[in-house]
Every structure is written in structure tokens, then in C-alpha cells.
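for the writeup, i need someone to sanity check this before i put it in the appendix. the sequnce is what the collaborator sent (i think, or maybe the updated version? ugh). structure was predicted straight from it, no edits. if anything looks off just tell me and ill rerun, i have time this weekend
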Amino acid sequence: MSVLTRDEAQLRAQLLDVHRYTVELDLTTGDETFGSRTVIRFAARSDGDTFVEVKPAELRSVTLDGQPLDPDTLHEDRLPLKNLTAGEHELRLDAVMRYSRTGEGMHRFTDPSDGETYLYTQLFLDDVQRIFAAFDQPDLKAVFEVRVKAPEGWSVLANGVTEQRADGVWEAAPTPPISTYLVAVAAGPWHSVRTEHRGLPFGIHCRRSLAPHLDADAEEILEITRACYDRYHEKFEEPYPFDSYDQAFVPEFNAGAMENPGLVTFRDEFVYRSAVTDTERQTRAMVIAHEMAHMWFGDLVTLKWWDDIWLNESFAEYMGYQTTAEATRFTDPWTEFGVTRKAWGYEADQRPTTHPVAPENVDDTASALLNFDGISYAKGASALRQLAAWLGEKDFLAGINTHFARHKFGNATLADFIDSLASATERDVRAWADGWLRTTGVDTLTPVVEAADGACTLSVDRKGSRPHHLVAGLYDHDVADEGRLVLRERIALDVPQDAPRPIGKRPALLLLNDGDLTYAKVRFDAESFETLRTSLSGLPDPLTRAIVWNALRDAVRDGDLAPAAYLETARAHLPRETDLAVVQGVLAFATGKIADQYLPAEERPAALATLTDLCRDLLRRTEDGDHPGLRLTAVRHLINVAAHPDTIAAWLADGTVPGGPELDPELRWRILARLAVLGATDEAAIAAELARDPSATGQEGAARCRAALPDAEAKRAAWAAMFTGDELSNYLFTATAQGFWQPEQAELVRAYVPRFYEDAVSLAARRGPAIAAAAGRHCFPAHFVDAGHLRLGQACLDGTDLTPSLRRGVADQLDDLARALRVRDKAARQ
């Protein structure tokens, strides 16, 4: 399979002006393939040669300007177009295309709950070629007319409003000029809830088996959609540019969502069939806001080449969180951003595979796909938040609106974006961009407090090169309650400083980046650190506490704080925490990193016991029913860290946790998976639970449980399903991988460690980027933290021809493994 290079794209864009696609899809031809006919009308600016991309099961015929071309000239998904003359042309292709089970191209899913089948497209980054022939690059925008023949009883959704003609074919309204990767179709017997807002059709859609759950949340989803739509029209001068706004919750979706104009697709886990916390609802609201922001930044104005993907994702990430805070009932999403998303960015930015927010070396589409990570999303959004604070919101939005006006329905680059911002301010935006967008790594900021004559000054020691506009919080002990801290003041700082800043008497706690406006690791002076040991939970603001927990997390990862000390701090302060995002983030890090990787095996049981006691404290605190989300979080994590089966097995038998909650499907499968790890269940129990819950989620739960059984035959079967057969869908593959590796079963699966490096290579080459990425993330034997494993993995990287997606995943995992070894070594010497 070929990849498109930047040079090839530039040459083709110079040659071609693409006007219109007419695409006809026939979804009635069977379970394996579908028909695809494409007419492309375009002009050549001069005489020349080029090519069109298509990945067919069979290319039946091709004509250019009425003259047949030989389908056999198709090579590596490219059909050459030789000897084009300057002027207008019409290209027609008739092909048979394959359905996908990996979430790429046209994904086909049959719901095990009722046997209904659903199809949807996911064409990012270069998968439009799996659906129809195209000049597949983002700067060759065109109008798209789409017609779909679908089975009787189905409805078809697309980028524009669809209508069913008399002959049964569904026809979508022509789009404005959009990029090829943004074309979208979703077909099946959808359950739909439709309304209008400001004269625009709104719709939300899901599988029929999820209809009761969507209906229960429909008003919340639509209210958030309306609120975001209205808020964006207050911010942006350009009106919403498409003819409708549909949101389809689709099965087995690889990403969180996709910003197809007029038809946003979401993973249908956002249709909640089991209890969730309010923070999880907030995340859904943020994703809705994020995807709607893309309608302007990404869809109306699109990147010219994939090196500027951050212009799409960083902007939508920033606007998603900011607009959620401004327009919905979820007023504090930046705390969750700090706990989860920003930590994702910090991790990615400290690996050997890091890259600038705006990289300059994205030479082809395979390289571009690797940049969809915590840097393009979280670091980029943090940079934009820093920029908005530095410029002021008025000038920031003025620059954004200039950008939309200049480039609507076109393409733009980083230079264009900076020019638009510069037009709205006297500040040196270009220098800011060089410092923030063209550099890699995370700066570290450490306060230096010096006392003289009864007063103190603050200097900030910066390890790194970026300028920072931030706030320092000065906190004193509450005279009425020594365990509480009160804010004395917040002072604005620009780093590097011109001179030390007077701060009066020494505070009990000095916190850099209070408010989380910049992107940097922060450290504490000795007195502040001692204050946190006793009074962290006494800080008044959840975002402030999140910043502290992030700093402690960074200190553990850097070997400056012993993992056991982090657990002690969590044990002391988390039972009094009220913010769900903070509780979830701390417990996830304490379990997934500290207990499972950073501590040696002999210390893991004590760590699990500490976490069990912590969760029990949270359960006792929530017995009054006033904090259902906190209680649910505690229940989930107590299940995850259970070292003995008795308690959770009793919950499963009773169908409830004493004092609540009752066990819904998610909790039942979670308990059963943990019982499988502990050897306290069997295939008969798994089959019985699957009979009770035969849904798609139930199928995934059963696959996870079966792979987790501490039985040699179960492990052999799971490994064969993942690496030998190709029948598993993307979700069933991931579920099986999640069950396979368990710290409690190290000796049972040790022989599979070298097999991973053998079998994953052929799997990735055979099944493509989505499965390769899943293998690198979920199949990697991360719990085997030893130098021999590190050498084995490095030898694979050095001596094996890995696909780009797998290479990136393995490289990142090996860096995490090396970090875990360093953490263990430093902790042993402390």
C-alpha cells in the first residue's frame, strides 16, 4: 500500500482544480462487499500526469472523458492518469469495495442483541479510498453529491439532509466544498430523535437496541448541543456553514468522535446503558462541544497538509473545554482537563517520539497519522489557552474571526493562522509561535523563595526555553482549622522574570501555575511540600488540588518522589476529596502505574491493600447517598484492586453493593473480569452472564473475561484469536487483549512476551493501522518490568521492519518501561 507524500500532494494541487464528486453506493449486494460508482469532475491547469486513489476489491471499469482506461494499471491503490491536457475532465470509476471490521473505511456491524446491521464511514486520514475513488488530500476540496441504495427499512444519514426517492435510493443534498476525508455516510435501521434549532434540523441517532438509553438522555444531549451552537455564534462571526446537524452514536468506533460536517459520529459508549458519574457526562458534553468547534476550525477552514493537524485538534480541544465551561451546567471541565488530558500531553512530550505541536517534518500520510496524540490535542490546547491568556480573549477571538473570514471553505497553514492573530494584536505572535509551537519537551518550573528582613521574594527557576504567563498562588494555614489552607492572593508572573517578586511573609504553600494557564511541570519548595503532606485536601479549589496531584504524579514519574510516598499521600487525602475527576485520576495512576509497574512485585500486595482501604473509606463516606458518583468511582476501583474474591463475589451473587448501587451490566462484567483474574470463576459463569447480557458490550465483556482466566488453554485460545485469525473486530480484539496480561499471572504468560514481538509484526502488516495501534497499546506486555524485556523490545525496534503505527506504539511502551525501571531503581536507593 502506498502513502501520499507532501511533495506528491503539492504537485497534484498545482495541477488540479477538483469541482465535484458524484458518488453512488449500493449497500444491498451482500455482507462482504458493496458497489461504488464515482464521477469526478475536475480541471487540469496544464498538461501533465497524475493519479487517483482507490482501494477496491475489484475495479470493474474506468473511463476518462468517455475513453476507457485499463483497470489493470491500478498499482498499490493508485490509478495513473496519463497525458492529461489542460482543461475540464470527467473521470468515471465503477468498483466493488470491501466492508471493514476494524473501524476504517465502511465499517459493518451486526448487533448481537437483535441481529440488525449498521454501516458507517470513517474516512480519516486516507480511508476515503476504501469507499470511493478520490484525489485524496485535504487541499483538493470539492462539492460532494452522494446517493445510497440501502436495504428496505433502513435510513441513511450523510453530510447533508437526505431524502428517499421513489426508487428507494437515498439522496443527500450537495455539500459545500469540503475535503475528501470529511465525507460521511451512516446507514441502518437507526433510532432517531429529531428537532430543530434556529431553523436548522438537529438529529441524534443510535442503534435500535440502545433506543431506551438514548431517549433517557436525549434532552440533555440536545440541550448541550443547542447551548454550544448558540455560544459559538456569539464567539464566531461566520455562521454555521452546513445545512443540518446530525450526531450519530455508532458501534465499534475507534476514536472518541469524528467531525464530519453535518454528521458527527461518536462512539456509542456515549449512550450510557449503565450508571455513570457526572464527570463522565461532562466528558460527553465536552466531546459534543469539541466536535461542533470543528465545524469552523477543520471543516469550514481546513489544513492544507497534515503538518497542521494541530490547527484542527488543538483548537477544538481548547474550545471544547472552554465552551463547556461557559455554556453548560458543567462549569469546571478544566479540572478534568488538567487531571487526564494534560497528563496525556506531558507523557507524550517526554518520550523519544515527541514532536512539536506544529511539526515541520510530516513528509507523508503515514507519518501524519502518528501525530494524533497528547501533543496535538492536550499540549496544543494548553498552548492556545496560554495564548488566550497572554493576548486577552478579545484579541484572540478577533484573530480567529479574521482567520475564518480569510479562508472559509478553503485551506490554511500555520503561517496563515499566525498572520490572522497578528492582525488583531500588537504582541509578537510569531515569536510566541516559535517558542511554543516549534519546540518539544516540557519545561519545569521551580519556586525559589528567599527571605530578608522579615519579607520574602519569589523567583522562578525555569528548566526549559518557553516564555510563560502564569499565576502563583500563595496559601496560608487557616487559623481556625490547621488542616485547611486559605488563599492569601494570586500574583501574575511572566517567566523569565525581570527581577524577583516581593510576596511578603513566607506562605505555607506557594503553588506555581495556580489556575493551570500554562503548560509546564511544577515543583515545590521544601516548606510547601511539607504543607502538602498534611494539608493537601484542605486546599479550597478542585483545580488547585488537581495541579498539586499532577505535580506529585510528575515527581513520581521523574524519580523525585517515591511511589510509596504518593500512595501514602493518596491514603491520607483522597478520602476527603470531593471532585470526581481528581479521585478518578489519582486512583487510576495509583493502580495502573504505581501498583502495576512502578513497585516491584513483592510490594504490590501491600499497595493493593492500601488502595482497597482507601476505597472502603470512600464507600463509608458515601453511605448517606449524597455522592452517588463518588460512590460509583469507589466501587469500580475497589473491584479493580480486589486481591481476594469473597467480597466482590458476594456482590455479584446478591446483585448489589451493600448500601448501593445495584449492579448494572457494566459492574457485573467488571466483577466477573476480576474474578476471572483471581481464578474464582469459570467458562460456565461467563457463558451464563453472556446469556443474561448478549449485547455487543456483553460480547466484549465475555471476551475480556475468557482471556483473563488463569488457564493455559484459555491463554492459548485468546492469543490465537488475536494473532492468528482475523475474525475479531477492533473492539473484540481490544477486549481480548485487555484480559490477557495480568500482573497476578506473570509466570503463566511469561512465554508470550517474546511472542508479542514476533506475532505483532505480521498482525500489523496484515490488518492495518487501527489494529496495529490497538496491538501496540493493549497487547504490549507492560507488566514485565525488567531489563531483559527492555533489551528484547529494543532489539525488535532496531532490527525489524515494523509498520509505522506499530513502531510508534512499541517505542512509546518501551519508553514507559524504561521509565518504570528508573523509578524502581531510584526508589530502591531512597
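The mean pLDDT is 97. The chain is about 45% helix and 20% strand.
thx in advance!!
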